[in-house]
Amino acid sequence: MSTYSWLVCVLLLPSVTALYFHMWETDVKCFVEEVPDETMISGKYKVEVYDDKTEQFVNKEGIGMHVDIKDPEAKVILSKYYTNEGQFVFTTHTPGEHHICLSPNSTRWFSGGSRLRVHLNIDVGEHANDYKQIQAKEKLSELQLRVRQLLEQVDQITKEQNYQRSREERFRFTSETTNNRVLWWAVAQTSILLLVGAWQMRHLKGFFEAKKLV
């Protein structure tokens, strides 16, 4: 049975994540990218297999990678098998946490299999664009390319500000709702205590009158 390991990388600002990690053939590694909507995310990975003879990680054919991406509503954005080296690109349509899960295409279920090392680069926002390719395709000068980069950075910052503002509004709404519930719960408790106290006083009064103590 697969072993699920969660690596949470919450990025509040568009940036670049470059790392490598070790995993077994039956493992699943997941990352969380928290980004606004209409944001491009690009990921590049490379899988290496540990060779017992050389005691090093080497490239090996046959070990691929399955990439599964879900949006904050748990809807599948991308689910695809790749080779031992590949790239995936997607654009978010819902703001929030997007789960990116990587799992080898191994047929082993009950043993760990080979040890793998995965190099992963995740680019978010304007960093996901290949500006060299854009410059060559649209025949832009260096100045035009730089202006375009700045405009896209400003656009991404605006999206991020709007996303943070919406998060702040949700947090404020949640806080106000919680405070109102706490207030009404305190009122309900006080009312119950007063009613119980009144009932006890009435019951004791009736008891004393029945015993002719008062």
User: Please, how many helices?
Assistant: 2
Helix content: 25-40%
Give the spatial strand order of the biggest sheet.
1-3-9-6-7
* Shape verdict: elongated
| Strand/helix succession | EEEEEEEEEEHH
Task: Say how many strands there are.
Answer: 10
**Poorly predicted ranges (pLDDT <50, ≥5 residues)?**
1-14
**Average pLDDT for all residues:** 81
Largest sheet, strands/sense/barrel: 5 strands, mixed
What gyration radius follows from the Cα positions, in whole Å? Answer: 29 Å
Q: Tell me what portion of residues adopts beta-strand conformation.
A: 35-45%
Task: For the record, give the distance between the C-alpha atoms at the N and C termini, rounded to a whole number.
Answer: 77 Å
Q: What structural class do you assign from the helix and strand content? A: alpha+beta
Task: Describe what you observe in this structure.
With 214 residues, the protein is an alpha+beta fold. 36% of the residues lie in helices and 36% in strands. The chain contains two helices and ten strands. It has helices at 131-138, 142-210; strands at residues 3-6, 16-24, 27-35, 40-51, 56-58, 65-70, 76-82, 85-91, 96-104, 115-124. A five-stranded mixed sheet has the order 1-3-9-6-7, with no helix packed on it. Strands 2, 4, 5, 8 and 10 form a five-stranded antiparallel sheet that branches. Strand 4 and strand 5 (56-58) form a beta hairpin. It is elongated, with a radius of gyration of 29 Å. The termini are far apart.
